[in-house]
Design goal:
The protein is α/β, with parallel strands linked by helices. Helix content is 30%, strand content 20%. α1 packs across α2 and α4 packs parallel to α5.
């Protein structure tokens, strides 16, 4: 496994190449507090192209910034940085990564060639309404990843259903794909229930979703 270092603002991101090859990459987005796995998991091994994994800001081998300030939109910027490097990709997001995959699919519909949403830590976030602020004491940046600021702030990140569906509709409108988002989750927080009801969103197993995007998601 090789690691490339990409710069997003003042953060150095770790983009792991788990498997090389030709064709459209599969980009893996981990859950809250996680990191890229050290090898290709059996469940995604059938993907025909290269496979990469991105460590979000404050996670894995990516930079832990000072003083927090984590939002889902910051992590969407991480994904955008990786997409600029890869050119285009199909996304598989777990937990928090699933929510970020929806945002990225709507913000970059021409280069995100399908987003597969999976269960994992951080899927629900802080719910649809703002909650009481949480204070993290000490100097978390000295502790290394995962950054306690990231765990505290992203676990309480507000996820209004209508906000998520705006990104879904942009993906449907501008990606050129009949099915830009596939849901393969058991847990269904409010934002994901709303996403699953949108036209252009299909419920499918991971295996079926990977097979679909491998053959039906050429760049337009």
């Amino acid at each position: 496994m090789s690691v490339e270092r990409l710069v997003h603002s003042k953060v150095e991101l770790a983009l792991h190449e788990l498997r090389g090859g030709a064709g459209r990459p599969l980009l893996l987005l981990h859950g809250l507090g996680g990191r890229t796995a050290s090898r290709v998991q059996d469940e995604i091994a059938a993907w025909p192209g290269p496979i990469h994994g991105l460590d979000f800001t404050g996670h894995g081998e990516s930079t832990v910034p000072h003083s927090g300030g984590y939002t889902a939109e910051v992590l969407m910027g991480d994904v955008d940085t990786a997409l600029r490097h890869l050119g285009s990709a199909t996304l598989v997001g777990h937990g928090l990564g699933a929510y970020i995959a929806v945002l990225a699919a709507g913000a970059r519909p021409r280069v995100v060639r399908g987003a597969i949403l999976r269960d994992g830590l951080g899927l629900a976030g802080g719910g649809p309404q703002p909650a009481t602020p949480q204070v993290v004491f000490g100097n978390p940046s000295d502790e290394g990843p995962p950054d306690p600021y990231a765990l505290a702030e992203l676990s309480r990140d507000v996820r209004p259903p209508d906000y998520a569906t705006v990104y879904v509709r942009q993906a449907v409108e501008y990606s050129g794909l009949d099915r830009p988002i596939s849901v393969s989750c058991v847990e269904r927080p409010e934002w994901l229930q709303a996403v699953a009801r949108e036209p252009g969103v299909e419920e499918a197993s991971l295996e079926d979703a990977l097979a679909y995007y491998a053959t039906h998601a050429a760049s337009t």
